[in-house]
Design brief:
By secondary structure, the chain is α+β, with helices and mostly antiparallel strands. Helices cover 24% and strands 34% of the residues.
């Protein structure tokens, strides 16, 4: 599992599940990597091994809604 916290620049490792965290509301939901990659189109940072994916801000609200709908668990 890996965590993507909104507004926190992170070199996200590939994981089976990613927790999407909003620090302003304490909401959290988890989504499978395959769904996240399909919806967001994560790109590996060149030259890093194992691969890391730079994330800084959560995607737009429409994309977040699709991710929540596809999530395995939800609290937000």
């Amino acid at each position: 599992m890996a965590a993507w916290t909104d507004t926190v620049p992170t070199l996200l490792p590939r994981a089976h599940v990613v927790s999407m965290v909003d620090p302003t509301t304490a909401s959290l939901f988890q989504v499978p990597w395959e769904v996240l990659d399909r919806e967001v189109g994560l790109r590996a940072v060149p030259g890093l091994f194992p691969p890391r994916f730079l994330v800084e801000h959560h995607p737009d609200q429409a994309t977040l809604a699709r991710l929540r709908a596809a999530g395995r668990w939800g609290t937000g």
